[in-house]
C-alpha cells in the first residue's frame, strides 16, 4: 500500500468515492468515515493538503499516536454503529503520513453532531446526504441471523487453526460469530474440553483435549490451558486478521480498478 500511495501522490491521482486527502484530523471527520462506510469503503490519507480535489503539499503529521487516537475516538463516539477502520503509518519524504482504511458496510451508519443526526455517502470526491432510495435499500436487507449471537452475518469462511478446522460467520462490522470446530479429516463437529487429568509435573505442558467420534481419533492441544484461552487468544485473533486482510485486499482492488479507468 505504501508504493501505491507514493504512486497516487506522484501522479496527482484525484479524490474519488474511495479516496480522500486530509491535511489533518477535523472535528467532523466522523462524517467522512461514515460516508465511506455507507458506500464502497475506501482510504483517507492524512498529512496531505487537498488541492482542489488532488493531492497538494505533503505537510505530514505532528504525531501518529495523537491522530490515530483521535480517528478511533471519532469513529466510535460520533458514528452509530461505530465504523470499522484500520490505520497504516507511512513515512514519506521525511514526513509522517497516515492511511486510514474504512471497511464498507451493508447497513447505514449515522453521524452525530450536537445531538443532530445525518446519514451521508460519497459521491465522487464529495460527501453528500444519502438518498432515500439507497437508505431504503440498505435498511430493507434482511441478512441471515447468527443463531448464537443474533447478529447479522456478512460472509462465511473457514480455516485450520491449532489442528482444527474452524468455521465461522462474520457480521457487517467484521466481527466473527458462530465459531464451530470441525475435524480436519471428516468435517465432524468436535467437542473441545479442558484437560481432564492435568499433569502433576509442572514441566509437562497442559492443554485441551478433543475427540472425533467419526474418525475415532483424539488429540491434545498443548500450550493452551483452557478452552477460553484457545478461542480468545489463538483462534479469534487469527480469524480477525484473515477478515482484515480480505477486506483490505477487496478495497485495494476496487481502488486500483477505479484508478485504471
Question: Layout of SSEs?
Answer:
Blueprint: H1 2-10, E1 19-22, H2 29-38, E2 42-46, E3 48-51, E4 54-58, H3 64-77, E5 79-80, E6 85-92, E7 95-102, E8 110-113, E9 116-118, E10 120-123, E11 126-129, H4 132-139, E12 153-161, E13 164-171, E14 176-182, E15 191-194, E16 207-212, E17 217-222, H5 227-260
Parallel strand pairs: 1-2
Antiparallel strand pairs: 2-7, 3-4, 5-8, 6-7, 8-9, 10-11, 12-13, 13-14, 15-16, 16-17
If you had to describe this structure to a student in words, what would you say it looks like?
- With 261 residues, the chain is an alpha+beta fold.
- The chain has helices at 2-10, 29-38, 64-77, 132-139, 227-260, and strands spanning 19-22, 42-46, 48-51, 54-58, 79-80, 85-92, 95-102, 110-113, 116-118, 120-123, 126-129, 153-161, 164-171, 176-182, 191-194, 207-212, 217-222.
- The chain has two domains: 2-141, Schlafen, AAA domain (Methyltransferase, Cobalt-precorrin-4 Transmethylase, Domain 2); 153-243, no CATH class.
- It contains five helices and 17 strands.
- The strands form six sheets. The protein has a four-stranded mixed β-sheet. It has a three-stranded antiparallel β-sheet with strand order 5-8-9. Strands 12-13-14 form a three-stranded antiparallel β-sheet, with helices on one face.
- A hairpin with a 4-residue loop joins strand 13 (164-171) and strand 14 (176-182).
- It is elongated and about 65 Å long.
